[in-house]
Protein 1
Amino acid sequence: MIRNMIRGVVRRIRLMREYSYDYRRMVRYSSAVQWGNSREKLQALIIIRYHGIEKGLSLPQPRPGFGRDKVAQLIDMLRTYIDSYGADYSTVTALNALDAYLEFNAKAGGQDESLRRNVEELRRRAAAFPTPEGDLTAGCRELTEATVRLAGQAPFETFMESRCTVRQFSDEPVDLETLRAAVKVAQKTPSVCNRQPWRAWVVSDDTKIKKILEIGGGARGFEDQMKVILLVTSDLACFQSPGERNQCWIDGGMFGMALIQALHAQGLASCCMNWSKTQDVDRRLRRMVALPESESIIFLLGVGHPREEFLVAASARKPLDDVLRLDQESA
């Protein structure tokens, strides 16, 4: 018995040591403490801000002039970034998103000459640097229900290109058997030692969905659109060592992506909603849905049938060479 107690204390100490390693890296390399004080951090913040514009434009009924404070922050970030690091795909895409924002507001009768002048000034600064390669389209794209419905029959590359985050759903209910079929396909996701720690909790009650979205936030402007929410979770009970302290997020995230693709193949649209929350928010949702304490929430997934025609955020991808890196021996 004493031996087991000692073993338990040793394991706790090892686990604390590993989490302190994660803590030090988070403090040093993320914006959780030092906000935007490197090129990579500031670039990420710019992408977050301009994608916020795209999300706003893709809502069912965008409010003219939405997000003015965040747009102003984006202008300041772009000035700092261009002055410090020059222009690249992130700055050009951000300016394209601002153009789309200006165009939307102009059509709604709300000209913003001050913002237009700021964008023009930033474009002049960016023009002094080489033109980035790739598709830097920003704002929104228009899709159709037929595009989503036919995606499952397309070649894999076309299938992946056709999947988008959707915030405009039709009133058609989501059939439980269709969800079951998608989850069954997603179960083929690989996991460490085939432990399959994931679950998808189905919430279809309108009142409960509304309360969940109020707790989580992030669905403002389209909270009434989703007929079903899936809570993707991963069970900590499946993991056994300090080295596996983050494995629930890896396995759960892989399952979540497979589930999104499986829903797309079934002709359903989805919107993945971040669950990087504080413990207070996390506990509020747990009390509502009665999740086991051992299950970590990976993200929320809004699901529904797409409208016949709808808008989605352009969501430009990073240049391939920024993602695919070769080590020196492979180059």
Protein 2
Amino acid sequence: MTQPGHAVVIGGGIGGLTAAVALHRRGLRVTVLERARSLEPVGAAISLAPNSLRALDVIGLGDEIRDLAAWSGDGGLRAPSGRWFSRSSAEAAAERFGGPLVLLPRATLIERLAALLPGDAVRTDAAAVLADSGGPGRAARVTTADGDLEADLVVGADGVRSAVRGALFPGHPGPVYSGFTTWRVVIPVPGARFDSHETWGRGRLWGTHPLKDGRVYAYGAALTPAGGRAPDDEKSELLRHFGDWHDPIPAVLAAARPDDVLRHDVHHIAQPLPAYHHGRAALLGDAAHAMPPSLGQGGNQAIEDAVVLAHHCDDLAAYTAARLPRTTAIARQAVRAARLSLMSSRAGIAVRDTAVAALSKAGPALFLRSFDGIADWAPPQRPYASGQTPAGNR
């Protein structure tokens, strides 16, 4: 397969837009098909580790995102009473992994990615179906309401319920319920002063983190049957789960309105796919390897996928070889981390909390150790400062 001339990206989320930008920088004509009526993301904020920031450097966006985001890492892990199990710092994280961990609204990242594409590249309200994945001597074909599109490369970036994945691998069982649901808010909390933290309780967890624009990003998770909804509203559900936990959690809950709260059940792909490509179509992000958010790596891995796919767009087997083992290992680690943080056995929790505190006294905090082998990744292309395209990187 020669380097493709036209790439169609199905899905206008973070992974899809990053892939579109990376492929556009390779000189491809790119069309992004997003079924929603706008690129407004479903979500609140995203944590970006040094691995994905290095990937964003490849498309010239890393420095801008570092400037727009808040550095995270100051804080640590707490009990519902407020007791600290372990502490860490943003400086320690940056030193350990060669760059900062940062936090910013998803909408900001989506906006900056879209701004790097030609004005006619993104089509919203554009549902698409992969009609033919293509092959040697045959282009791939995507069907839309406005007619068919032929492409030398189709990128399935259409999320955990990916229709592209179903078309490429119809025998795959798809995602499974991870056993818990999540709530997220991004809101102003007047007078709030706190260190970032994640708090582990019995079958529940909470996180609170400041954003650079003065707002607060907070999230909760709890073991619960799939498909559940609060009998009144989701803010009331959060109060029932977390209302008596340590400061600043009560202040965050008091500041939130019911409409501010997003709730989503968590699903992951338990059985790895046999490949991330078939014919002239490739999968990335949640479509390929959906994982629980316990390591904060879902979006980060999608960004990694995107730049590696652009690097190997003329050899999709090399893309699978580069990405499948890494993402499978990280997804499995995320499942284990979710089980640890949402443990429900009282005896197990006592052992867990004691071990976390002891390990953190003996060395780097558990928070930092969990990123070893993940945050130190570097892309196959040479990273460069935003806005600078080095010779030989095309």
Protein 3
Amino acid sequence: MTNAKIRINTINDVKNFVSIVSKCDYDVDIVSGRYAIDAKSIMGIFSLDLSKELELHVHSDDCKDFLDEIKDFIVE
């Protein structure tokens, strides 16, 4: 599993993020506090507090291409 911190700020960011994640063959979760949602669910993402950093859990160790695609959302 690979983890990263992300920030999704706008409605368009959510749409773009879900579009990228939906292409993945493996599971990707977003964790915020005690809530964990499927990152492929646009409604699930909108249910989170997007003003905070979110934790991304990618259930694959071979996801470098995916991380490159979402680099604009990753918080260093």
